[in-house]
Amino acid sequence: MGRPLSEHATYRSLSLWHETAGDDFEPRPALPGAASYDVVIVGAGLTGLWSAYYLHKADPSLRIVVLEQEVAGFGASGRNGGWCSALFPTSWERLVKGSSTDGARRQHRAMQETVREVGRVAGLEDIAADFQQGGTVTLARTPVQLQRLRSGAETAYARGFTEDDERMLEPEEARAMLAAESVLGGSFTPHCAAINPVRLVRGLARVVEALGVPVFERTRVLGIDPGRVETDAGTVRAGIVLRATEGYTPRLAGLKRAVVPVYSLMVATEPLDEAMWSSIGLAERPTFSDGRHLIIYGQRTADGRLAFGGRGAPYHFGSRIRASYDAEPRVFEDLRNVLRRMLPQLGTEEQGVRFTHQWGGCLGITRDWAASVGLDPGTGIGWAGGYVGDGVATTNLAGRTLADLVTRADSDLVTLPWVNHRSRNWEPEPLRWLGINAGLHAMTMADGEEGRTGRESRIARLMAPLTGGH
Ligand SMILES: Cc1cc2nc3c(=O)[nH]c(=O)nc-3n(C[C@H](O)[C@H](O)[C@H](O)COP(=O)(O)OP(=O)(O)OC[C@H]3O[C@@H](n4cnc5c(N)ncnc54)[C@H](O)[C@@H]3O)c2cc1C
After folding, report:
1. Cα-flanking dihedrals φ and ψ of residue 388, to 5°?
2. What is the pLDDT of residues 285-323, one digit of tens each?
3. Which residues surround ligand 1 with Cβ inside 6 Å?
4. What distance in Å separates the CA atoms of residue 112 and residue 21, rounded to the nearest whole number?
5. CA-to-CA distance for 446 and 439, rounded, in angstroms?
6. Which is the closest atom of ligand 1 to the Cα of 244?
7. What is the signed CA dihedral for 292, 194, 9, 354, rounded to 10 degrees?
8. Which of 18, 46, 80 is the pocket-test mutation for ligand 1 (most atoms within 8 Å of CB)?
9. d(CA 201, CA 214)
């Protein structure tokens, strides 16, 4: 039942979301053989499926096909932390440099609107994705973190955003949202919804199929060229080819150094009872984090669990991707410990709440840490990706933008600064391996140093060019 082509045991075992989705993940038919379409989309994650959805809506006469090497929602789109947020990975400075202050502001406003758009379509198309726009609470648990949150909010106001976009929280207010240990304050933004990622992406695949767009699964694309893609089932010809392969892109011929696959890992608890939830908070299901350098992210799931993730898993030499890299026992252990320290209500490993799931997946990072979407009118090849770890909502903006680019719509979206941005290639190995792992290590060290000294770490500032400032 739903056995994958890859080394994974079953699709259901890919994550908490997969296991509890009530879906058998039985693969759809593979591409039967050579074929010809107007648009071929490579990858049935959120990027590929949103693109198919909006393209069909824009021009129902287009013959569109989606090709997926495993099943829809196999990649990061099915496994993520479920933050459908307005966070945009490209730095403000880079957006301004590539366009203007107004352009950067429009990009961020477009992301805020995108969060609502995902909720709108989920409602309209009856996709039971447990979408709840409860915002995000970011806790400050050390004086340096508090200082960083304050200066982040001040910077946002100086850029034209207001307290309706981001506001500081007094310690009591922050604690009322999330009763964590050592809360010195926090910040809150309403621009995020908690979702169940697998339900969103699987629901979207069903909607796209019902619109008449075939989704061929277990069909691997080997290479992309103008006007055609080579697959393990034959050649597909199409005037437009859209690449939606994110972290898996380096496996495609000629794209080895376009993005690096970096792993993010997650753990989840058993469902918690009401007494436990009233001692924790998260009543409106805001997603949560704190102000450390090495990203952590959590949500209260619709079925009452804590799902919690973070970076910190190593980058693997040669941009290799393997099922075994989804599991890194040290990182799982760290995540459980961080969450138990944050929320002592959870109790000890021996006697407290049980952690029932752990999983991971890869996301794509470009050399300049800039996400992009584009279409080369000369070749007919389009792409979207490099979302770092902020892809859930961004894929929707990408899908709408690709639809406008393909249909040559004269829209605001096609003038946003990320459109047609080109990142340069990553360095060859071993430089890539050395640089990325040094950056990851530096962030862990910076958090440790700040915890010990209470002062802003110089390591993080020094390593900013390698880590994109994240
Ligand atoms: C553990 C984890 C937690 C995350 N948490 C968050 C979060 O909370 N919020 C957030 O905004 N972002 C988060 N992200 C990032 C987010 O999930 C991704 O940015 C987003 O899902 C990317 O969507 P995508 O469709 O571009 O890529 P994917 O979902 O990876 O889809 C790509 C698809 O293409 C297929 N494919 C690849 N190569 C080929 C080929 N050659 N032939 C055919 N098919 C191919 C793959 O099988 C896959 O299904 C997280 C990522 C991970 C791994």
Report:
1. 60, -105
2. 999 999 887 789 999 999 999 999 997 788 888 889 999
3. 42-48, 67-70, 74-77, 79-83, 85, 220-221, 244-248, 251-252, 264, 266, 297, 309, 360-363, 385, 387, 389-392, 395
4. 27
5. 10
6. 26
7. 70
8. 80
9. 15
What tokens appear for 139 in the block?
Answer: 């806790």
Instruction: Provide the whole-model pTM.
Output: 0.95
The rounded mean pLDDT for the chain is 93
Record the tokens describing residue 188, joined without a space. 């809150």
> What value, to the nearest 5°, has the Cα angle with vertex 290 and ends 288 and 293?
130
Ligand 1 pocket: which of 5, 77, 252 to mutate (most atoms within 8 A of CB): 77
Phi, psi (degrees; rounded to nearest 5) at 215: -115, 105
Q: What does the DSSP assignment read for 322-366?
A: -GGGG--HHHHHHHHHHHHHH-GGG--TTTSPPEEEEEEEEEEE-
Where in 21-89 does DSSP place strands (E)? 35-42, 64-67, 83-85
pLDDT tens-digit readout, 116-146: 999 999 999 999 999 999 999 999 999 999 9
Tens digit of each residue's pLDDT (9 = 90 or more) over 257-287? 999 999 999 999 999 999 999 999 999 999 9
Q: Look at strands 136-140 and 287-290 and give their pairing.
A: parallel
Distance from C-alpha of 29 to C-alpha of 141, rounded to nearest angstrom: 50
CA distance linking residue 334 with residue 329, whole number of Å: 9
Query: What element of type H or E holds 300?
Result: strand 296-300
Could you identify the atom of ligand 1 that is nearest to the CA of residue 287? 8
User: Widest CA span of the chain, in angstroms?
Assistant: 63
* Atom of ligand 1 minimally distant from the CA of 360: 1
Ligand 1: centre distance to CA 249 (Å): 11
Nearest by Cα to 80 from 207, 192, 220, 213:
192
Other CB atoms closer than 10 Å to residue 302's CB: what's the count? 18
Question: Which ligand 1 atom is nearest residue 70's CA?
Answer: 47
Six-digit token pair at 141? 């648990």
- Nearest to 125, CA basis, from 25, 193, 53, 18: 53
More confident residue, 318 or 207: 207
Query: Which residue CA neighbors atom 33 of ligand 1 most closely?
Result: 43
pLDDT at 455 over 80: no
Residue range 335-379, pLDDT digits in tens? 999 999 999 999 999 999 999 999 999 999 999 999 999 999 999
Calpha distance 146→311 (Å, rounded): 21
CA 2 to each of CA 126, 129, 430: distance values in angstroms, whole numbers, following the listed order: 24, 21, 37
Query: Given a cut of 70, is residue 466 above it in pLDDT?
Result: no
Q: Is the pLDDT of residue 431 over 90?
A: no
